[in-house]
Write a structure and sequence with these properties.
The complex is a heterodimer of chains A (about 170) and B (about 70). Chain A is an all-beta fold and about 170 residues long. In chain A, about 0% of the residues lie in helices and about 50% in strands. In chain B, about 65% of the residues lie in helices and about 15% in strands. Classes of the chains: A mainly beta (about 170), B alpha+beta (about 70).
């Protein structure tokens, strides 16, 4: 299996915030892709929010299944768009806390539909407003993935939010 | 007024560019925020309705939530 991670690119959001983080011109030379993120939204009306994932600028043809826990309840959900593809906290949670998320995209350059999985934790350092989620997603498109965008469901990514894109190879 | 920006990283060159959103992109963001706010309002209303129903049942039983939990324990 692919087991060696190589950092392709990374980004840290500056003082003005950012409405999205876009990785473009992704080389097709790896077996899989992995994204690790530390994100927070500027939205002042939400405790946690979805992180939307789009491939090749497409936000359609996504099918997503989700399991989640909030600390007090657990549940599941189904989505037919790219929202959410992970979670992060927002302005109503403890200041300066950031969500951690991992997105794995196997066989991203192949000619079959593309799957991905996400494990994200929007932790609030408190007993409430936590959101832990496991997502399995399918992008019903056979094109090779050459660009990936992360977008907050609402608001902007705040300063010091980070995203790292890794290529995974067999070695 | 400063326009919102997005970050674009070209993975071949490693170049990172901060790009101002176009008016159309800003309008789309506002629209998506409006949709999200509507959805949140609907979700909050649904949660409030469930809670109100629970309280109504408890009132009919003449019990508190703690008393029901103790009975079921």
């Amino acid at each position: 299996m692919a087991n060696t991670f190589e950092l392709i690119a990374s980004s840290t959001v500056g003082a003005g915030g950012a409405s999205s983080i876009d990785f473009t011109s992704i080389p097709s030379t790896y077996t899989d892709l992995a994204i690790k993120y530390s994100l927070r939204s500027s939205s002042t009306t939400d405790d946690y929010l979805g992180v939307k994932l789009s491939f090749n600028s497409s936000t359609t043809s996504f099918t997503i299944r989700q399991l989640y826990g909030t600390g007090s309840t657990a549940g599941s959900g189904n989505y037919s768009t790219n929202n959410p593809s992970g979670y992060m906290q927002a302005g109503l949670t403890t200041a300066s806390t950031f969500a951690s998320g991992d997105i794995y995209i196997p066989n991203y350059a192949g000619s079959t539909n593309k799957s991905f999985s996400t494990d994200s934790v929007a932790e609030n350092n408190a007993a409430t407003a936590n959101f832990l989620s496991l997502l399995a997603g399918l992008w019903s498109n056979t094109a090779a993935i050459t660009s990936i965008s992360l977008t907050p469901a609402t608001g902007n990514f705040v300063q010091y939010s980070t995203a790292y894109l890794y290529g995974v190879i067999k070695s | 007024m400063t326009k919102p920006t997005r970050i674009e990283i070209n993975c071949e060159t490693g170049e990172e560019t901060i790009i101002e959103l176009t008016d159309a992109e800003i309008a789309e963001l506002a629209y998506q925020a409006e949709l999200a706010a509507e959805k949140k309002a609907e979700d909050d209303a649904a949660k409030a309705a469930i809670e109100a129903k629970k309280q109504e049942v408890l009132a009919k039983l003449g019990l508190t939530a703690d008393e029901v939990a103790a009975l079921l324990a």
